[in-house]
Amino acid sequence: MQTEGRLPLNMKILIEGEEEVGSEVLEKYLTTHADRLACDCVVISDSAQFAPGKPAITYGLRGIVCYELLLNGPDRDLHSGSFGGSITNPANALATILAGLIDDQGRVQVPGFYDDVVALTDREREAFATLDFDEADFFRQVGVESAQGEVGYTALERRWARPTFDINGLWSGYQGDGPKTVLPASAGAKFSFRLVPNQTPEQVTAALREKVAQLCPPGIRFELIAFHGGPGVMVPLESPYIKAAARAIEHAFGTPPVFTREGGSIPIVATFAETLKADALLLGWGQDDDNTHSPNEKFCLADFHRGIKASARLWQELSQIATRQVPSKPTGGDRWDLAGR
Amino acid sequence: MQTEGRLPLNMKILIEGEEEVGSEVLEKYLTTHADRLACDCVVISDSAQFAPGKPAITYGLRGIVCYELLLNGPDRDLHSGSFGGSITNPANALATILAGLIDDQGRVQVPGFYDDVVALTDREREAFATLDFDEADFFRQVGVESAQGEVGYTALERRWARPTFDINGLWSGYQGDGPKTVLPASAGAKFSFRLVPNQTPEQVTAALREKVAQLCPPGIRFELIAFHGGPGVMVPLESPYIKAAARAIEHAFGTPPVFTREGGSIPIVATFAETLKADALLLGWGQDDDNTHSPNEKFCLADFHRGIKASARLWQELSQIATRQVPSKPTGGDRWDLAGR
Hints:
The structure is a homodimer. By secondary structure, chain A is an alpha+beta fold. Chain A has helices at 24-32, 34-37, 90-99, 122-130, 135-141, 155-161, 201-215, 240-253, 267-276, 301-319; strands spanning 41-44, 56-61, 63-72, 78-79, 166-173, 182-183, 186-195, 221-226, 233-234, 258-262, 279-283. Chain A is elongated. Chains A and B meet through strand 3, strand 4, helix 3, helix 6 and strand 5 of A and strand 3, strand 4, helix 3, helix 6 and strand 5 of B. Strand 5 (166-173) of chain A pairs antiparallel with strand 5 (166-173) of chain B.
């Protein structure tokens, strides 16, 4: 506004204060005010740079769907001597069912789970490989020496671009000191799948319900609760908005951005895409060592200033894109390349 | 003493007040005073009749060995989005390991687990089949409609005479309301095997440790804690003591006893056998509906009086067995028949 006398484009600012508690109100607000909020592109700063001196454009987020599985067997805890072997044990059944949801290659065994997964392209894998990501160092940072995951993918690929099955919680029977010879009446688990485009929570839930029914042994009744979830998101790199953002970042940081994906989920991004039919630009200026959500959280002042400069430049760059010309969402069968790099 | 003026045999009475808390002191006492306690036969009343009007001699008990398995992965709980897929999840590993200890036929997958199992003989299975045991009714009593167990055996056979694997407790990660997208740092389980003659806790523990090491994936450190256990017990039915007890029971109850085994464990019985080289007679007068260890526990007065009469007669019968002539313990390879029926 200082240089041109007016903003070079029409801007609508939306402030969200509930991202950490599920964005329920924002979701309703978007649906109710879709006309008023209509736009070509949504710019969100809720991601990070790849490393110091490596600003990033996050072009993909994983989705998520969470569940609770409750198994009930006998109507009370039983003596494992008097009844063991003759009555189905819900905790045994839980281990069998959960282990049955993934094979020894790290592949999820829910039927059709991979049908709509947009595969990593060769160029994408090459681009990831050129990033300065050291697996041994990554493992060391969380206190492990190695890891097991989906066979055929690097840790970075598995983290950013492949769907997962993670048990988030387990409980059954006796958890105190020493042994107890109980055959528990019930057992339960929380688990979740991280999704990638174009998987949907709804399809996974339907197939999962059938799979659990198949795996559930005689003598056990199961209840599968599906919690709120959201699909993954991927912005095509050939998008003119991505190209505009890359130019703005290079201007402000003095180096072109790297293109990264993110293993976590920001479900509202998919809601923006669905409700407003607008692509998202995920431009964030944080660093991995900012202690996000932890004690001594920080934000680098130099990144603060470079981020301001990149944002100011971004409006200029975006204003030069005359009309909406974003390619359609990639589909499972399409060849999808890093054309925008 | 009223009829003969003196007891017809030498009797040593041992009163145990700690059976429900592991009999640790008794075990030490037996070892220390083995010479003083030397005897031909140990009579224990800690079992039950098979049903009203069906007094029983319990000729077999299962053994037991209990464990705690602790798995540790990353040094703290991780975000399942940022790390899921790239770091091994201890709760996933726990499900895989536990499920890997038993196959879909209900067979324990610890190497050598069945090597020393004394098989049910055809005559034993026939004898079990003639007992008035209704599976549907048994299931109904604990609130289930059916059950899964080791393929090829009836519920009664599985309960009395086959070894088991039962998970007694599970814990990991988040157990509260709703979902939480955590990749837990650790996971744990309690589990136990019921053993049958001639399995030993020591052999199972050694083989289990190797099996768990095989099943434990990269990125997970495991700790396997073995708690106190004990082997199963089986008194050969051709034992002259068993025959003497059968005559005493028929005298007192007006009907011959049925021969039953018991799924539970009384580890001290094996200690008696090992320390004193004496066989055990398990003669108990309780009923299934006595509410043992539960509110309104009872004991039928008629059974009390019949039990007294059977015990008095037993001393007479035992006194007529001149010398120790008990057959040796059955071994895994032997053919072992219900010769004593």
